[in-house]
Write a structure and sequence with these properties.
Number of strands: 6
Oligomer: single chain
Largest sheet: 4 strands, mixed
Strand order of the largest sheet: 1-4-2-5
Shape: globular
Length: 153
């Protein structure tokens, strides 16, 4: 999940895939737009990292190992939850819920004990989500330009 930002757009981003799988085997695990993938086990600070899944149009997406899938009880607009769950304020809640020494983990029940604050107004969620998406896009653009300069040297 280190390869992804806060938002995973299935139409644009490369994701690993299963071959020779049958859809009925994974039917109960299929993602919907705005579902979240949360890292539950890692050797570094990525515990609790979230990726919001978007762009699912007639595609079948399931989560991989060492992740927990979360679906908001109340619908949220796209781009909001992925950025919010990755905020420093939210991650402070996770610190005392993690366990392990070399490899840290957090359980699904501990994730469920956290508090997610959000504006109920969809327009406000949309503005916040788009603001952070624009920042992510600008960072990606600058990183890409930096890598091109390094490769030219």
């Amino acid at each position: 999940m280190d390869n992804y930002g806060s938002i995973l757009d299935v139409r644009k981003d490369w994701i690993p895939f299963i071959t020779n799988g049958t859809i009925h085997r994974y039917k109960s695990q299929l993602f919907e737009n705005v579902d979240m993938i949360l890292v539950d086990t890692a050797e570094n600070e990525t515990i609790g990292k979230a990726v919001e899944v978007n762009g699912i149009n007639n595609k079948y997406i399931v989560a991989g190992l060492y992740t927990i899938v979360a679906r908001p009880i109340k619908k949220k607009v796209k781009y909001f939850m992925g950025n919010h769950i990755n905020s420093h304020i939210y991650h402070k809640q996770l610190l005392h819920l993690m366990y392990g020494t070399k490899v840290s983990s957090i359980s699904k029940s501990n994730f469920q004990r956290t508090i997610v604050s959000y504006p109920k107004n969809f327009n406000e969620q949309r503005k916040i989500g788009l603001f952070f998406k624009q920042i992510d896009n600008a960072i990606t653009l600058h990183q890409h330009r930096f890598l091109i300069k390094i490769k030219k040297r």
